[in-house]
Design goal:
single chain; alpha+beta; Beta-galactosidase, Chain A, domain 5; Glycosyltransferase; 3 domains; eight-stranded antiparallel β-sheet; 23% strand; elongated
Length: 695
């Protein structure tokens, strides 16, 4: 397993030797380098039951009881630095009995507890404690009395911090608590690097014990009265980085995403869509050097570093919410493109990423290089402004030039080194890029389209000849061709990418990597219990050697792969299989409170069971939130062609969720709404002026 780093929340990365599922490699982006040797693993803290309030670069990590105890990674963070690690509430010397902790929004958690007070004679608690904590650490604490008499209660908050980095904390190298000083209406801590943090309270405390980090109040509560206490966390540093300017009111906001909504016979799509868009907004962050580069963090809490290939996949799935995010993400990734005249010119640099226990690491830069022209071509059809297209087209041409040279030289696209291996999933990305790249170049009057179509044709012929494995059950594609000529036949959710041809231009472009019979066989495989867990598609089939339901590339359900499968199956007319996967994903989302993690265990679904969380999965995650959007919109099958002034609908005729309406989408930069009836008939209710309904 390759050594990896743990990017800390915020624009900066905090290197750490701690490994984790699918996290960025600590190696360089040079794919010609040898694959790194295994690193000694460090155990990750579990996050499956944590409440993560996210509004990057702000993040608050809470346990369900609501107290910040100073143990483990709990706390309030800004740009990866822990501003507050301890915030323990005591009333009359006792901690409230925790009853409930839940997410109220992507950036806010609420907690409910109760207390019996001195002098109570019965078993019923008379004091209710309500807490609401935001991503930036601000908190509202309300004590409400139901006692029949006046209550006089001492209230105290024990506060503390170590001002440590998240990467150090999760590796067990967190610092000691710093002794605070009294500051205004609260306390202040200053670290060795001159960075400081202050906590202020309203109303001001009656007493402050700096040495113990304790603020105290004497509260009188009449019957039925409520006492409200508000805390604010103020982080400071000797030097403000450009990235920190994105905090607060300047944080990238809702203008990048439309306020899309869903309503219909089944209320769950509306809840899932709302939560997913909230999560996506919370994951937005600015580039540390170029603040105009706004993109999605791959996931919280582990993967909030520089822009990644996953941010680009998520931007692709978010195109129905507008094209601005795609443009800013493409621009950010384009800054890592290699220039010059060599063979590597046009490739986007990126670190290695673990590919599971059976295969060597893969290069995220190659994945991003192949995704770049795909996202730009599809964004153009959704209505990308001409100025953005003109700026980004040369970068896409560079990616396509690298693809053409690499495919001609090797026959396939190797990953991560020029010597291989050759992954089936990578060939699917390359084939899609060649087809959509040809469409893009032809539409923009640029040369090279015919050469790319020739590359795609050769790849199809070779793939069908060299990757397809015949067997009595109908055959299957090999996962990888190794440099020594051997084939790895591990069947997993990656096969969904073989069916994803993207938003093609029709006619000569609409050709898949597989032929008709092979595609039908892949559809059958996706529908078998070997891959379909009932909650989504497993990363590795149950009959494959090394299957592990908790393996991030060896059996867990990855939401991105399931979303790709749903959209691809729906687009190719495989409605029964698409509907089954969509219902399973929707059921899983409901079990996770409509906040899907990046992955969860690939345990087989049984009656009355719930999906099992993965202890280290990011939640929220960009591809999971965006994948929920893509899966739901497969019900409507929206196919825009804004340059051609048309949009067509291809809804699922079976209407698996009954009638549903999507509103607040964007096509051509204008509001777009569509309704699908119980008979599976689609109708456009709102669209840009002059946009015609096509076939």
């Amino acid at each position: 397993m390759a050594p990896r780093s743990v990017p800390a929340p915020g624009p900066q990365n905090t290197p750490s030797p701690a490994p984790g599922p699918g996290y960025s490699s600590a190696q360089t982006s040079d794919t010609s380098a040898a694959v790194p040797r295994a690193a000694r693993p460090v155990e990750f803290p579990s996050v499956h039951d944590a409440l993560l309030c996210v509004a990057l670069p702000a993040l608050t990590w809470c346990a369900g009881h609501g107290q910040l105890t100073g143990e483990g990674p709990e706390g309030v963070y800004h740009a990866g630095k822990r501003l507050l690690s301890r915030c323990v509430l005591r009333v009359a010397g006792r901690e409230p009995v925790a009853l409930q902790g839940r997410m109220a929004a992507a950036d806010r958690a609420v907690f409910l507890g109760v207390l019996r007070t001195p002098g109570d004679t019965g078993p019923d608690p008379v004091l209710t404690v309500e807490r609401a904590r935001s991503a930036d650490g601000s908190e509202r604490i309300a004590l409400r009395s139901a006692a029949p008499r006046l209550l006089r209660l001492p209230v105290e908050l024990a506060l503390g911090t170590d001002l440590a980095d998240l990467g150090s904390i999760v590796s067990g190298r967190g610092g000691r608590e710093i002794t605070p000083s009294v500051h205004g209406t609260g306390l202040r801590w200053t670290g060795d690097d001159a960075r400081s943090v202050a906590v202020t309270a309203d109303p001001p405390p009656m007493d402050a014990l700096a040495a113990a980090g304790v603020l105290r109040w004497e509260v009188e509560l009449q019957p039925g009265a409520t006492f409200v206490l508000r805390l604010r966390v103020h982080g400071e540093s000797a030097v403000r980085s450009p990235a920190s300017l994105g905090a607060g009111s300047g944080r990238p906001g809702g203008h990048l995403f439309a306020d899309a909504r869903a309503e219909g016979d089944d209320p769950r799509p509306g809840e899932l869509l709302k939560s997913s868009i909230e999560d996506l907004r919370g994951l937005l962050q600015r580039g540390p050097v170029h603040p105009t580069d706004v993109y999605l963090a791959a996931g919280v809490p582990w993967r909030c570093g520089p822009v990644t290939a996953e941010a680009l996949w998520a931007a692709r799935m978010c195109l129905p919410l507008g094209t601005r995010l795609a443009a800013t993400t493409l621009r950010a990734l384009g800054r890592a493109q290699l220039s010059g005249e060599g063979n590597e010119s046009g490739r986007i640099q990126g670190p290695l990423r673990d590919a599971g226990p059976h295969l060597p690491p893969r290069c995220t830069g190659i994945e991003a290089t192949l995704a770049f022209p795909v996202v730009l071509a599809e964004a153009r059809r959704w209505g990308l402004p001409a100025a953005d297209l003109e700026e980004l087209l040369p970068l896409a041409e560079g990616c396509l030039g690298w693809l053409r040279r690499t495919a001609v030289r090797h026959g396939f696209v190797p990953d991560p080194t020029p010597g291989g291996p050759w992954r089936a999933e990578t060939q699917a990305h390359a084939h899609r890029a060649a087809l959509l790249g040809a469409d893009l170049l032809d539409a923009c009057g640029k040369p090279g389209g015919e050469a790319l179509l020739d590359v795609a044709k050769v790849m199809r012929e070779r793939f069908r000849r060299e990757f397809w494995l015949d067997d009595p059950a109908g055959g299957r594609p090999a996962a990888v061709l190794m440099a020594d000529g051997s084939k790895r036949a591990q069947l997993g959710g990656w096969v969904a990418h073989l069916l994803d041809t993207g938003l093609l231009g029709g006619g000569r472009y609409a050709t898949g990597l597989l032929d008709k019979s092979e595609s039908e066989q892949v559809v059958r495989l996706l529908a078998t219990p070997m891959l379909d867990s009932g909650w989504g598609v497993r990363g590795l089939g149950t009959r494959e050697p090394g299957h592990n339901p908790f393996g991030h590339r060896a059996g867990a359900v990855r939401v991105h792969e399931t979303a790709v499968a749903v959209a691809a199956l729906a687009a190719t007319g495989q409605e029964r299989e698409a509907s089954s996967l969509l219902r399973g994903l929707l059921d899983a989302a409901e079990a996770f409170g409509h906040r899907l993690p990046e992955m969860y265990a690939g345990e087989q679904r049984t009656a009355g069971a719930h999906p099992v969380p993965h202890p280290a999965a990011c939640r929220p995650a960009a591809v999971a939130a965006a994948g929920a959007l893509q899966s739901l919109l497969a019900l409507a099958g929206i196919r825009p062609d804004v340059p051609g002034r048309s949009v067509s609908l291809h809804p699922l005729a079976s209407a698996p969720l009954g009638a549903i309406r999507f509103a607040g989408l964007r096509v051509g930069g204008e509001p777009f709404a569509v309704r699908v009836g119980r008979l599976g008939l689609g109708m456009v209710e709102e669209a840009a002026e002059g946009l015609q309904l096509g076939v």
